[in-house]
Structure formats: structure tokens, C-alpha cells
Design brief:
This protein is α/β, with parallel strands linked by helices. Helix content is 40%, strand content 19%.
């Protein structure tokens, strides 16, 4: 891979985009949305090949679920793209402005980052999400997907580039897909070391991928976290609500990062709640229970230390019993990945304590962690869920791909 040649082209494309207004960029994105709709058959056909190869390789169905595209999911991709089109262009937004005592006018405005790289696994919808957010915010993007979704990604990028080439003002050079070879990650190393060529890199995938990027990158990184999410059922919780939320947060789509991996239960309600939850799960979830929880469950197995803090990404869950909300908070903060946590409680004091003390990007009261998502937050597409504290935290929408600069107007002032 000639990364210098690729990033030079992307840099030139980003400079073109930086000069375009929202109307021109939106017209290009509308053309992409229409092209994705018209070409859904070829996209699904390419995806079918990826799915077949994944099944032949023995990949788990929960991971294949992340890889799979169908008409409904393509509808969702297009809907997310149209939400991005309808959002306000952040480029040029005046964040702050003031006049200095000597008469200079200072304005802080949003500008694109420039060239963005995203390294991601399995999910081909990320290809469109990342592109649309980058394009709308005036950035060029380098996509490095996984080998498991490569055929899908190639077809999606082909459709995007043809759509951009066919519309006035379209900049097809603003998107580039890295050619992926199985078991060869040398291109990832090049991206992570592309100082001066890539302005920021985002990893989106499992714990191993994220740790590799964070540990080895020399370019700036926005860290998206794996999702070891917890549901805490408080002594003052509505247990019927808790069962409903636990079912949604664990079972609706267990392979995603905002699904819960652990249920923490107050000892005062454990005897009543845990059998209810097990009945609600109806054998669909393998339960790993600590020694206090297991006596209330019919089909659980003893949890080991490895279960607590583990991201199953499957129909599995661990259970822990605690005696106080303070103990729950301490346990969650020491075992989570700073992603999403939820408390079920009717106590205002306890819910506020939980929200104030839990260290995570999203903290819920009486709601499922499955809402941690750019679409659910009204952003349309998302780049991922940031679990770090600098620059951005939580679901990442358009503004994440901008920074600011100061524009100063004077009349001959000198210092």
C-alpha cells in the first residue's frame, strides 16, 4: 500500500470539501442515498458471500449478525444517511466571539479535522456511517475494514464513489478503502504510524483491536471502547421493569457494545428478582452467577473471576449480588469499560448518586443501555462510542470530526 500517495489524494480532497457549502455536500450525499437504494441487490449479494465465508470459517452467529446486511438494514443505513443530510453543517459554526480592549475581533469557528482514518471490524454499515459523517463535516476518510466484510465494503464504496462522480461538486476522492489481505495487518501499522499524513484515527471493534490501536498509534486516536455494560437493580427498583429492561439490554442484540454483560442486584431484592429474571430469559441466556446469586437460580453455573469484566458479545451474562448501592458503584467502576451503565430504582437519591458517581460515557436511570447509539441520540449515523474523556465522549456524530481555530481581524494593531 502506497500510503503517502493515498493520503496525499485524501488531503487534496479534504481541501476541496472544506470550501464547499452545506447545499453542495448535501446534494452529493442525497445522490449516495439514492445509489445505495438502487444498488441494494448487488450490495446484499456481496454481503452474502462474506456471510457464507464467515459461516464456513466457524464464526459465531452473534458475530455474523454484526456482519449481515438485508433490505431492512439497508433501509436503516439510508435512513441514517438522510438524518445526517438534514443536520446542520458544523463547518464555519461560530463557537465563541469577542472584541479585545485594543479593538481586535476574535472568533472561534469550527473547521474540519482533515484526513480521518477508521479501523473497524465486521459491520459494513460503518462504511456508510463513517463516510457520511466525514463528508458532511468536510473531511476525507480512509477506511480499513476487516477481511470478513471486505466484499461488502468494496461494493458499498464502489456505489458511493460512482454516485459522487455523477453529481455536480461531488468529490469521490474523499473516500478510500484499504485493500485487505487476510492475516496481514501491516497496513494497520502503516496507518497508525502515518504522522503528518493522517490527522486522527478511530478504532471501532473488539477489545483486542482497540487496545492495539491505542497502544501502538503515533497519530492522534479517539478511543472507542468495548462494551462491558452493567445493569444495577437497586433495592428500591421496580422488579417487573427491571426484568423487561434486562431482557432488552441482554437479548435484543447481544453482539453489540451497548448490550449488558453483567447484572448487579441488591441483596434485599435478589431472592425475588433473580428467579423472575431467569423466567423472563427463558433459557435464552447462559448465566454465570456468584456464590450469593446462584442459590436463587435454577440453571446458572458458578462464575469465575474471568466472568466479571468480561465482554461476552453473546447470549451469556454474569450475576453479582451486593449489599449497598455504594458497593454496586465501586464494583461497576472497577469492572466496566466506561461505556454505558444503568440503574433500576425509584429512589431519587440513589439514582442521582449512581449518575454522579459512575464513570461512564452514558449513565441511565430506568432505561436500557441499548439506547447508547448515534441514531437513538438523534445524530443519524455514528462513528462509534467514545469512552475517553478528551475531545469527545459517548456517541460520536458530526461535530466530533471538527476542531476549532481562531479567526482574528485587526486594523493595524501591534504589540
Amino acid at each position: 500500500m502506497d500510503l503517502k500517495k493515498i493520503t496525499d489524494s485524501l488531503r487534496a480532497a479534504s481541501q476541496k470539501l472544506a470550501l464547499q457549502n452545506a447545499g453542495v455536500k448535501n446534494a452529493a450525499l442525497c445522490a449516495v442515498a439514492e445509489a445505495l437504494d438502487k444498488n441494494r441487490a448487488s450490495i446484499i449479494a456481496a454481503n452474502d458471500k462474506d456471510v457464507a465465508a464467515a459461516r464456513a470459517a466457524g464464526i459465531s452467529e452473534s458475530i455474523i449478525d454484526r456482519l449481515m446486511l438485508n433490505d431492512k438494514r439497508i433501509d436503516g443505513i439510508i435512513d441514517s444517511l438522510r438524518i445526517v443530510i438534514g443536520q446542520t453543517d458544523p463547518v464555519g459554526e461560530e463557537v465563541a466571539g469577542w472584541k479585545t480592549p485594543n479593538g481586535m475581533t476574535i472568533r472561534q469557528v469550527r473547521v474540519p479535522l482533515g484526513v480521518v482514518a477508521i479501523i473497524y471490524e465486521n459491520r459494513p454499515n460503518v462504511t456508510v456511517d463513517a463516510f457520511s459523517l466525514a463528508y458532511k463535516s468536510g473531511n476525507a476518510i480512509l477506511l480499513r475494514g476487516s477481511s470478513s466484510s471486505y466484499k461488502s465494503n468494496v461494493e458499498i464504496v464502489r456505489v458511493i464513489c460512482e454516485a459522487l462522480a455523477g453529481v455536480a461538486g461531488g468529490v469521490p476522492e474523499a473516500i478510500e478503502l484499504v485493500e485487505v489481505r487476510e492475516h496481514d495487518h501491516s497496513d494497520v501499522d502503516q496507518i497508525l504510524n502515518a504522522v503528518g499524513m493522517i490527522d486522527v484515527c478511530l478504532p471501532r471493534g473488539g477489545k483486542k483491536l482497540i487496545e492495539n490501536v491505542v497502544r501502538n498509534a503515533k497519530v492522534p486516536v479517539i478511543e472507542t471502547g468495548s462494551g462491558v455494560c452493567h445493569l444495577y437493580v437497586d433495592e428500591f427498583g421496580d422488579l417487573e421493569m427491571a426484568c423487561k429492561i434486562a431482557e432488552n439490554a441482554k437479548i435484543q442484540r447481544p453482539s453489540v457494545c451497548n448490550a449488558i454483560e453483567c447484572v448487579v442486584v441488591h441483596s434485599k431484592v435478589a431472592a425475588e428478582f433473580l428467579p423472575k429474571m431467569e423466567e423472563t430469559f427463558a433459557g435464552r441466556v447462559k448465566l454465570h452467577a456468584d456464590e450469593r446469586a446462584i442459590k436463587y437460580l435454577k440453571n446458572a453455573i458458578p462464575a469465575t473471576d474471568a466472568d466479571f469484566g468480561n465482554e461476552y458479545l453473546d447470549y451469556e451474562c454474569c450475576i453479582k449480588v451486593v449489599d449497598t448501592i455504594e458497593e454496586a458503584i465501586s464494583y461497576i467502576n472497577s469492572h466496566n469499560t466506561k461505556h454505558s451503565e444503568s440503574i433500576i430504582s425509584e429512589s431519587r437519591a440513589n439514582t442521582r448518586l449512581f449518575q454522579n458517581m459512575i464513570d461512564a460515557s452514558c449513565v441511565y436511570v430506568n432505561a436500557s443501555t441499548r439506547f447508547t447509539d448515534g441514531g437513538e441520540f438523534g445524530f443519524g449515523a455514528e462513528l462509534g462510542i467514545s469512552t475517553q474523556k478528551l475531545h469527545v465522549r459517548g456517541p460520536m456524530g458530526i461535530k466530533v470530526l471538527t476542531t476549532t481555530k481562531y479567526l482574528i481581524d485587526g486594523e493595524g494593531q501591534v504589540r
